[in-house]
Specification:
By secondary structure, this protein is α+β, with helices and mostly antiparallel strands. Helices cover 23% and strands 17% of the residues. It has a two-stranded antiparallel ribbon with strand order 1-2.
Length: 71
């Protein structure tokens, strides 16, 4: 029987021990404390009115329903 490969936290980049609690969120694994910090940061940014999700480099940042007229 092979041992499971190590799981790394997406927030702090440290290994999550097999006996530690982990949380999977949006396809990433987090320590429980790191996940709580992440959620708190998201909530704080939403309260300030800033979207937490940053547009990727290939996205325009516009809402999909708002389109500029074609020439």
């Amino acid at each position: 029987m092979r041992p499971k490969p190590p799981i790394w936290c997406a927030k702090c980049n440290l290994r999550i021990a097999p006996y530690d609690l982990l949380t999977a969120y949006h396809g990433a694994n987090y320590h429980q404390d790191c996940f709580l910090r992440l959620v708190r940061e998201e909530a704080d940014e939403q309260k300030r009115g800033q979207p937490f999700r940053r547009p990727a480099s290939n996205e325009s940042g516009e809402h999909p329903s708002i389109r500029s007229p074609r020439p």
